[in-house]
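Re: the multi-chain job from yesterday

Posting the exact lines I submitted so nobody has to dig through the queue logs.
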Amino acid sequence: MKKFKLSFQIGALFVFGMILLAADHIDAPAVQGTSADITDYYAFQGGDANNIVFVANTQGLLAPGATDAASFDENVMIEFNIDTSDPKDNVEDLIIQAIPRDGRMYFFGPYAAGGNTGTTGSIDITAEVTAVDITEYGESAEIATSDDGIKVFAGPRDDPFFMDFARFGEITGGMATSFNNPGDDTFAGTNVMSVVIELPKSLVGGSGTINTWVETKKK
Amino acid sequence: MKYIKILSLALLAMFTLQNCGDDETMPPVDEIPNVSGTYTLADQMGRPAINTVFVASDEKNTFNTTVPSEQGALYADKFAERLENLSMPVWGNGGKNLLDLDAETFGGVLATDVLSVSLDGTTTFFDGTNVLTGRNLSDDVITTELTLIFGGEDGMETPTLSDDNVDGNDKDFLTTFPYLASPW
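And the result, structure tokens for all chains:
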């Protein structure tokens, strides 16, 4: 019975015909390989429990040899969206926008999204700004901190994502029926272009739960 | 008066010089570049692997350019159907997963692609106790998602598909900002 179940499952996956890919790596055909291609999003309590950290990674599977040439596109804004409402309506109440210019990453916010919600948006330059030199490949991390404790970084990092994606492809391709043990991290040895912001929780609602997502928007 | 002015300028210069380098202060307002214009949604993400696992190839771009508040209405049924296609033994006949959610409910939860984050304590995708309170760098999100898709009610229904047996990153994370390890 169990064996039948297993082959039915594999058959269903195979017949479905989809290559199942990892995190959001390689999931956006329209922007694949560009700096608008988001690979991952993380949100976690900072080393200081009064702070929250947001990480947005872009441009996955960068080989070490390709990382020096990788850059953030000046026409691409990375936008952190935060819904603080209760109950949640999944419409952003606060946004943080990061955009590069001449080797520096400028972070606007967090500020009230107001009418700046949805699929198009602009940057309100009267919002609080925190700027940092984009860290170059091989140099130690450049960090900037604003007066109210917003800490920012932008540059290449080891891709923190881990998965045996190669084996998963074999399973969905009908060439294997189970994962290996131990598995093999397909993303080992690769880099991403990363934007990291740590800020006091009081700036994004203070307490309770937030719903959050990251977007890239292009001009 | 002049002496005091020169001294203040000197002190200001010293202060500025000291703060250039690894830890910088904010630029003055007149240094903000021209970032005017309208920017249009290109890609988005909430939880890991959701678009890639649940959205058909020819719909990925549409999903990416649909705002989260509208995703549920458009995709909840498709996600529920996808769960049943991935594992009918687990999801058929009102079957549930470890979170005690059936295909319709779990599909509905996942279709609105946002990450829920607690501001009150432990932030993790899943640590055995806390569920969907954030996403840490060290969270094994893939095994969590595989378990929630293939594991059934006790999480153990299809052990060979519920864990990819890669449970950590290739480099140690940093204990301080920016937390992500230096590049290879």
